[in-house]
């Protein structure tokens, strides 16, 4: 599967059935104790239109978690003040997002030749901050998907409201 | 990740950030008279890991691109409402030299200038 940036993309789903297969496999190979590392993972099913893949959950929750801090008004002499943010910019809103780039091949033995490749600019989040001088700065946030940890992702999705507050909201 | 870095550098070199800033100025009615001079662009990577190894790997991939102030790194666990705009948690070349992976990498971090022609928001420079 490819995305508009032509980068290879893999989207992984871990269904409840997959989990059971994993548990059975580990049990039959004498590694049942390792299952607890996977037990905390959220399950998702690609055939369920209301479901998202595990990496999507990780990315979105990490982005939301960091964006919440950016979104709080911060008004100090050093940092300026938060102005506006676009936490998940629509790709259609990004001007000139498809770029043709001349890149050198990284070879140690052969001469380095330039190669024209296409790169896709599509940031995860954007925040415009008003500096103390009154000028605006463009701040771009990108989450590192390679370091996502599905186990901690589940923790970050916990509701932030205390249980008592949630109960009062429901009543 | 390197492909993402290359996209951001190309976007900067080809002067596309001005269009992006102009788009946001119009979208949110911001008073930005000249996007080229009055606004800066910086790229941050947030991560869910706090291990120094992962941080060093991420940084080493960007170090060769010589954009020490364009790419700043931090861990998601360090981000709070009090710290995210202080500049204290964002790592660039000089901060990463102690955990650099190879001697060549370490030398590059010590000798390379922090700024590569990229404007940096004032709160980062503090």
Layout of helices and strands:
The complex is a heterodimer of chains A (171) and B (126).
Chain A lengths: L15 H13 L7 H4 L14 H18 L3 E2 L3 E7 L11 E7 L9 E7 L4 E6 L5 E8 L6 H7 L6 H8 L1
Antiparallel strand pairs in A: 1-2, 2-5, 3-4, 5-6
Helix pairs in contact in A: 3-4
Chain B lengths: L1 H12 L3 H11 L7 H4 L2 E7 L4 H12 L7 E5 L17 H4 L6 H9 L10 H4 L1
Parallel strand pairs in B: 1-2
| Spatial order of the strands forming the largest sheet of chain A | 1-2-5-6
Strand content of chain A: 15-25%
**What pattern of helices and strands is seen along the backbone of chain B?**
HHHEHEHHH
- Over all CA atoms, what is the radius of gyration of chain B? 15 Å
Terminus-to-terminus distance of chain A = 46 Å
Distance N terminus to C terminus of chain B?
28 Å
Kindly state the percentage of residues in helix of chain B.
40-55%
Q: List the total number of helices of chain A.
A: 5
Structural class of chain A: alpha+beta
Order of H and E elements of chain A = HHHEEEEEEHH
Major sheet details of chain B: 2 strands, parallel
